[in-house]
Amino acid sequence: MYTKDGESYFVLDSHLHFWDASPSNWIKGQEQYAKGWIECFHAYQGLGPPETHWSIEHFQKYSEADFEKDVFQDGHVDMAIFQSTYLRDWYTKGFNAIEQNAPLLDRFPGKLIVNGRWDPRDGEAGIQQLEADHARYGLRGVKLYTAEWKGSSRGWTLRDPEAVPFLEKCEELGIKNIHVHKGPTIWPLDKDGFDVSDIDQAATSFPGLNFIVEHVGLPRIEDFCFMATQEPNVYAGLSVVVGGLMYARPRFFAKVMGELLFWVGEDKMLFGSDYGIWEPRWQVEGLVDWDYPDDQFSDYPRWTTAAKKKVLGLNAARLYGVEVPAELRLPDDVDGGAPADPSSAQLVEGAA
Amino acid sequence: MITRAQVRSALATVYDPELDEPITGLGFVGSCVVGETGDVDVHLRLPTSQCAPNFAFLMASDAHRALERVPGVGEVRVVLDDHYTGEEINAAVGSGAGFAGAFPGETSGDLEALRTLFRRKALLAHQGHLCARLLAGDADPIDVVALRVSDLPDTRHAVRAIALRDELGLPSGPDTPALVAGDGTAIPAGDLAGWLRRARLVGLSLESNGGICRSLLRVRYGVPDPTEEVAA
């Protein structure tokens, strides 16, 4: 919980990690990729305030005690969702596979949700693994990383027919939240690897699932916004937007927030710190303090206290069925969460 | 004997296809050496080692082609540094093997469709800037959509919009519409507000991606960033 100026905010960090990218976890012969991946992330940390930067050694592997301090003690986070990312072609134990995340669940009972993953290229064995993970962890969501390498393949899309049985299985098991993270390497390589139109197709075919597009589809925020306007079950994951822009590019951040509030709407935006890339503390405090810098932004929706409460935690709590203490809900929200507002698409058409 | 200035201006014609900015302004040219016999050795660098291989290839091969067109140039060598597919890209650019040659079996065609898609986005973005300027001071949308290319102000966005129309095969003569839809026709006045809202978002996307790229390049190589908002 974070309290400022008499207002208290329930903080549900919808996107963070507990990874091991230290050299002892690099696969022999793949060291350049394992090293390049974590160094790329480390450079991203450089976009946050200098006092929050870590050494590369600390960044490669941080401890459970670091996690507790940065997230729960200093970071104002009430609950958090682990987004498991495997990358087993590069990291022996995985980058942050579900088994690596799970021990923290026992250490911080009731405060962490762990999401699973699947990969359509795993076929029937992948379906069985998903069922087993669900039986063991009671999954409410999965994180899909479409640019993950597997053997000679450099990625996949939600349009692949092989993805359909996995989406059907999620529906059947009640794994309702599908977080999608786009990356640069989609087969075939001559196509735009960041293209989000496959999510559009899946969201239409599976209206009972929620699709949370991580880092709002960056670098294709425009395609993401046009899609989210039309699809009631598509949400914006704000990881990277806050961490990468709020401090380093405040004017861009203001425009991006304004566009997201206009096209996607405050009911469908979810805060995510992307810890360990960026610590949650400065992001949570910054979002509560934030407002448009000047009157050049007057035709964007306002960033109200209610909007802050929804984005920082209440929206994610609704998607994940998390009970929010009564005093931290919005005044008109007696049952703990209203359904997503599907009228945002009409709103945009009316304004256009 | 060719000069460094000639080489620099050839490189300034090479655009990042995704951001629609010259690679020279983005800081992607890491080094550029002109030998005594006119040989040119250029090293390119990108914001991350994982930047998309298709755009990386386009910039390296476009740079190679632009340098080969410099009159009197000797041997041209373009090397992409510190990239996870650098080896494949450098070999194919050097031998002229093309994108499919760099990644055999991993492509379904050449990169022209991708290039066209991003030219269309860039055209919309530049036109959005132009339109906002033309609408300033409460101009009537009916008057704005009636403007011709010859009425456009002499700005970077106007110059680039016309160049992109040429590259996309859209009409761009002085008497054609100043602002065009994707098919080259004028935008109906009643659609202008919604069209501008979309154009503005596409423009923001290109600019914020460019901003992130510059920030990462600064962190990675210590390249000063002239567009920086916050001192490092």
What's this model, at a glance?
Chain A has 352 residues and is of the alpha/beta class. Chain A contains 13 helices and ten strands. In chain A, the strands form three sheets. Chain A has a five-stranded parallel β-sheet. In chain A, strands 3-4-5 form a three-stranded parallel β-sheet.
Integer-rounded radius of gyration of chain A? 19 Å
- Spell the H/E element sequence of chain A: EEEHHHEHEHEHEHEHEHHEHHH
Give the amount of beta strand of chain A, in percent: 5-15%
Rounded mean pLDDT of chain B is 92
Low-confidence parts of chain B lasting 5 or more residues at pLDDT below 50? none
Helix content of chain A: 25-40%
Largest interface: A-B, 46 and 46 residues
- Please tell me the overall pLDDT of chain A: 90
Helix content bin of chain B = 40-55%
The amount of beta strand of chain B, in percent, is: 5-15%
The class by helix and strand makeup of chain A works out as alpha/beta
Assembly type of the shown chains?
Answer: heterodimer
Descriptive overview:
- The complex is a heterodimer of chains A (352) and B (232).
- Mean pLDDT of chain A is 90; it is low at 335-352.
- Helices cover 39% and strands 11% of the residues of chain A.
- Chain A has helices at residues 31-45, 56-60, 64-73, 98-107, 123-137, 164-173, 197-205, 221-230, 241-246, 250-263, 280-289, 305-320, 344-351, and strands at residues 2-4, 7-9, 12-16, 79-83, 112-115, 141-145, 177-181, 210-213, 234-237, 269-270.
- In chain A, α5 (123-137) runs parallel beside α6 (164-173).
- Chain B has a three-stranded mixed sheet. A two-stranded antiparallel ribbon of chain B has the order 1-2.
- In chain B, a hairpin with a 4-residue loop joins β1 (15-16) and β2.
- The chains are: A alpha/beta (352), B mainly alpha (232).
- The interface between A and B is large, with 46 and 46 residues.
Set out the fold topology.
The complex is a heterodimer of chains A (352) and B (232).
Chain A: E1 2-4, E2 7-9, E3 12-16, H1 31-45, H2 56-60, H3 64-73, E4 79-83, H4 98-107, E5 112-115, H5 123-137, E6 141-145, H6 164-173, E7 177-181, H7 197-205, E8 210-213, H8 221-230, E9 234-237, H9 241-246, H10 250-263, E10 269-270, H11 280-289, H12 305-320, H13 344-351
Helix pairs in contact in A: 5-6
Chain B: H1 4-11, E1 15-16, E2 21-22, H2 23-26, E3 29-34, E4 40-44, H3 53-68, E5 76-80, H4 86-95, H5 98-102, H6 112-135, H7 141-145, H8 156-167, H9 192-221
Parallel strand pairs in B: 4-5
Antiparallel strand pairs in B: 1-2, 3-4
Helix pairs in contact in B: 3-4, 6-8, 6-9
